[in-house]
Structure formats: C-alpha cells, structure tokens
Batch of 2 targets.
Target 1
Amino acid sequence: MSHARTRDAAADDKVPPDSTALLTIDLDALIANYDRLRELAAPAECAAVVKADAYGLGVTEVAPALWRAGCKTFFVATLPEAEELRALLPEAVIYVFSGLLPGTADIYRKADLRPVLNSAEEIREWAAQCSRYGEALPCAVHIDSGMNRLGLTAADVEAVSNNRELWSALSLSLVMSHLACADDASHAKNAAQRDIFDSLRARLPETRASLANSAGILLGADFVYDLVRPGIALYGGHPQRRGPNPFQPVVHLIGRILQ
Ligand SMILES: *Cc1c(COP(=O)(O)O)cnc(C)c1O
C-alpha cells in the first residue's frame, strides 16, 4: 500500500505549526565538546573563539553557557563583537583578533578588552596609549609563523624585540600564532610553524603562549602551549580532514516532508 503523501509524524510533532523547519542548538553538546577539548589540552587553559556570533549559533546563548562551564577567556574578531560580549560576560577576559584600529584604544580601555596586536606599529601605538593613561594595559601579540594573514613578520619582531621602553609601557599577557594546515596532521608545515613561533617568541618578553585552534589541539601536547583557542570543534564541526569526528553535533535541523 502506498500513500500519495508521506507524513513524518515525529517532525510534525516538533516543528511549530506555522513553520516548515526547526533548527535547534544543543547547549549540552556544546559543553560536552568544551569539556572534551579542555581534557585534550590539559594542563593548558581552554579558551573559546566566539567570533561571528559564535559561528552563527548565537553568542548570547553560547558565551554564557561556556562561562558557566568554566571558560574564562574568549576571542572575537571585531570590536563591536567584543562590546556585545562584554555586556554578556562582565568578568571574562576578552581578546579581539582584529587588533588596534586607529582611534579605538579608548574603547578597549573603557570596556576592559584586550587587543591582539598584529604589527610593530600597533605595539608602538598601544604602548603610547598606555603611557598616556599611565596604566600598563594587557594585550596579546600575534606572530605570523606562516599563515600569512595577520601578525608580526620576523622583521617586525626584530624591530621591536630590544625596545625595553616599549615593553615596559604595556602588559604583554599572551603571544600567539595561527596554524595554516593543522587540519592535516601529517602536513610538514605544522612543525615548521611551531619552530618559527618558538624562535620568534623567544625574542619577545616572556609570557603565556598560544598556537592551537581546534585542529591544532588534536596535533597533541607539543602544540597546546599555555592556552588553546578552539572554535569549530566547540560547535560540533570536524576539525581534521581524516578519521571520525571526536566532537558531538550541536546543531540539529528537522524539516517537514511535504510530499
Ligand atoms: C577562528 C580562529 C580560531 C579558531 O579556529 P577553529 O579552526 O575554528 O578552531 C583560532 N585562532 C584564530 C586566530 C582564529 O582566527
């Protein structure tokens, strides 16, 4: 016996009558993924990347859930994202990848945000602003170890490395870099980037270090340093190209089958 129309009773139950589909975000799965990443990276601190509205899942729900689960440090891409996050999490440590755009220092200071400084010029500007405030405010420095997107080149590091006055004006709380090929665990570039990161950060004041995104955490203990910065794995994405996904799906979509 066949029917002209096949109804899916389960979907009909869950999808509101005036809708055709229902997308749900499973915050328990998000936290399970966070706990998994934290275990994998221990004893490093596990931060969370919540840029682009927490990868589209909704930062207003995602960030407080992570905070309640014990996440204390967050990364966003832009200053408006950081201001929105500050309103949600008054006590979190918040870093902004896009760094110190002209005229933004006062916003950073007022909302207690930390710029990720991407050039020698930005480091000089932050130091100058800190001197003006009379406060050595925290910041991160991003070293380009081979991603070729953002960060200090070897020449930039050279230009600022011995400038004591510069480094004493500010408070360097993190030195970081970003892996380009960590989704392929056998790629030679992973170890090469780690070596460049080590040799360049050795020329800067000693502080905490961070290299691994989600895929980098799966590369093992040599890549986790003091703090890890997962994004996609938190949200259930598979960070590597091969093998089963160790993380739980967070996004679920059910749709009605009309016919
Ligand atoms: C987006 C981003 C991350 C997170 O990367 P995932 O691959 O999503 O884990 C980490 N660090 C930087 C600099 C980023 O831009």
Note: Residues 213 and 230 are 5 Å apart (CA to CA).
Target 2
Amino acid sequence: MTAPIRPQPGILDIALYQGGASKIDGHDDPLKLSSNENPFGPSPAAVEAMGRALTDSHRYPSTDHGPLRAAISEVYGLDCERVICGVGSDEVIHFLCQAYAGPGDEVLYTEHGFGMYRISALAAGARAVQVPEAERRVDLDALIGGLSERTRLVFIANPANPTATMLQSGAVERLADALPDQCLLVLDGAYAEFADGYDGGRALVDKRNNVVMTRTFSKAYGLGGLRVGYGYGPGHVIDTLNRIRGPFNLSGLALAGAEAAVRDRDWVAMCIRVNTDERARLTGGLRQLGIDCDDSFANFVLARFADEAEADAADAYLKSQGVIVRAPKSYGLPHCLRITVGRPEDNDRVLAALASFKGAE
Ligand SMILES: *Cc1c(COP(=O)(O)O)cnc(C)c1O
C-alpha cells in the first residue's frame, strides 16, 4: 500500500463551517432566528421570475451575467463593468483569496470576524491572521498594527456579523490609507442595506484602487437559498477574479431570481423598514429585561448575558419554547446569543420567552 494522498498545506486546519441550526427535537415548526434570514422571504416578483426560468432549465445560463449586473448597477449606481457575481458573496471572498493570497502571504481579519475569511485564506494556502477587537468593535489601531508587507487582504464586515456594530466611513478610509502596497481592503457589505444611509463602501471603491466591496442577496433580499452575491472593485481586480470564476457559476434560476429581486425596490424597502422598527423594539425589550446589547446596524441583535452559563441556559429555554437562535461561541462570544430580527409576532415571542426565562432565574 502507498501512503494516502495528503491535501495542500493549510486545508486540514480548516474547521468545518457551522451554519445556524434549523431543527429542535419535539417541535414541528420552530421559529428559526439563527441565520439572519429575511423573515418575509423573497420578493413575489423574484418567485414568479424563477417560475418562468424553470422551463428554460435545459439551456446553459449566461456566462457574463449581463442582465443581472445591469440591474444591480442601475439600482445601486455602480459601473457595470466592475461588478462580478458569485455563488453567494462567499464565492467572491473565495475568489479574492485564491487570486491574491498564497503560501507566505497573510490575510487579516478581526477577533469576531466572519468565519469565511479564515476558511478561504487557509484554502488558498495563506496565513490567516486575527487581530483583537475593542468591546465588539473593529479596532482600527489594532488592525493597522497587524499589517505587514506580507498582508494581501484585509477583511472587514461593515456592519459586522455577529456583533452588529459598524465602523464609520472616516475610519474605513483611514484604514484604506494605511494599507501597504500590494494589499486590498475588502468591505463585506452583507448587511449594508440595513444601515440607514450607508452605501456599503461604493464611493470608496470608486475613488481608490485598493478597496473592494462584496454584497449579497442572502439577507435583505431574502434569497439565502438561491446563492447569489457580488463584488464591486477596481477594474483590474474584477478582471482578475473573472479569470478564475467558473463560466456557469450562477444557474439560470439564480440569475432570474436575483435580477427580479433587485428590480423590486418596494419589497426590499418594506423589509428594511420593518427590520428597522422591530430591531429597535427588540433592542429596547432586551435592555428592559436586563439583557445588554449594542445598537445594531444589521438585521440581528447580539444579546449579552452575565456569562456563558446564563447564555447556555437562555439558549436552552428558547429551544424549549420552539425558538432557535445562534450561540456564537466559535466567534469568541460564548456569553452571547445572536438573535435575528423576525416579524413583529416573532419578536414578541422571543421577548416573552426571555421574560419568563429571566423571571424564573
Ligand atoms: C451572511 C453573510 C455573508 C453572505 O454570504 P452569502 O454567501 O452571500 O450567502 C457574507 N458575509 C457575512 C459577514 C455574512 O454574515
């Protein structure tokens, strides 16, 4: 027998990504608030467009995603030539690591940063370097202190997951100014739509050559199951990423659904409006119960408990009431629970359950 084949260095250091749970034993129809999904689902126009696209399933899809890129560009005021679409923004993150970070290179992200940054960096053979945050906020000085001549990519989600906090645009620009040559700042805008007045970093991308923005249809647009995201960046970066992108990475169904979704501006505006109101109500309700949380700029709230034991007990109690939230232990926040903002009746249910949990403590 020969020795079994071994994967490339770094790959076995990847811990499998843990998605939000979706089942509880003994509950047929649990309330799932663990993956920051849109509680209202996709736009009806997107569902209709996908229905029509089904009958064309024998055809290969567009390779350049022209109509979807045009729709995104019209709605968000982007240069269509500098948009690349991926199988979720996860794929765009993956392309960035594959294209720009290899053995000997460093990819920077922050203490509570999104899990895909580390996974994609290691998959590309690069070093994943984590820098501390300050009280659940990206710490600019720590990040700048973590830069080296080997740093190729710096990932920041703004607003961030799972903390829901946000860096102001002046701070983001200061970071972009501080980057060494041969380094890109990636602004992950998965939750940008929920931060009132924020452009996701578009203006910064347009005025610099070292900033890339990623966006997704998985959160505000309610299409997490369809897997569509996109990146926006300097022309030379988008040209590079397109060379490694599979020619048919997005299905015809995905292209049709996302295009209809982005053009249905009323639906997403309604979802964002309800989220804003309900986020304030959930935040206020938690604080009234003595459960701390930072102001959220996203579609979830990070509830902080006294310690890990209390967070575990709250999590177990919510489960007993048929409610699934996310315990962000792998993000260095064992005393917290991340609760997606649901429909008004969902948030009532969460607050009522936590009130009886606190009352029984
Ligand atoms: C949900 C999320 C994404 C989106 O991933 P998709 O692949 O587009 O579904 C990206 N970044 C962060 C921080 C997220 O929370």
Note: DSSP finds twelve helices and 13 strands in the chain.
